[in-house]
Amino acid sequence: SYLGEMLRCFCFLAVLVCVQCTSLPKLNINTTTFTISGISSGGAMAVQYHVSYSKSVMGIAGLAPIPYWCAELNIMHAVTACMSEPALISVDLLVAGANYAAGLDS
User: Fold this and answer.
1) Could you give the dihedral angle defined by the CA atoms of residues 50, 103, 86 and 83, in that order, rounded to the nearest 10 degrees?
2) Helix (H) or strand (E) holding 32
3) Phi, psi of 20 (to 5 degrees)
4) What single DSSP character describes residue 34?
5) pLDDT tens-digit profile of 30-83?
6) In 3-state terms, what secondary structure has residue 9?
7) Strand, coil or helix: what is 28?
């Protein structure tokens, strides 16, 4: 419903404002043993985090994530191949995308 959408939008904005106003405590994290995990979309986030911050992550556990670079910067590919038609996913392109991302840090 319209009211429900407005309420969700208001709650999102309230959380966003709250996060921006609150400083988070410094945590004593051993980055040599830091791991991240997630299920489904959380697994996709874990994969993305691992690729983006691979120097500070020991490893990940992703249960049913979409593959890294699956969407190929294309929203239609994201909602078709990645979500419901895996036969459309090109493994060669996934490998090329990962190799490209790895080369960005060089």
Assistant:
1) 50
2) none
3) -70, -30
4) -
5) 877 889 999 998 999 999 888 888 888 888 999 999 888 888 888 888 888 888
6) helix
7) coil
Angle at Cα 79 formed by Cα 35 and Cα 73, nearest 5°?
Answer: 70
Q: pTM for the whole thing?
A: 0.62
CB atoms inside a 10 Å sphere around CB 106: 4
pLDDT for residue 97: 84
| Residue 99 CB contacts under 8 Å (≥ 6 apart), including other chains | none
Residue 44, class by beta-carbon neighbours within 10 Å (0-12 exposed, 13-18 middle, 19+ buried)?
A: buried
Helix segments in the chain, DSSP class H: 2-21, 41-52, 75-79, 91-103
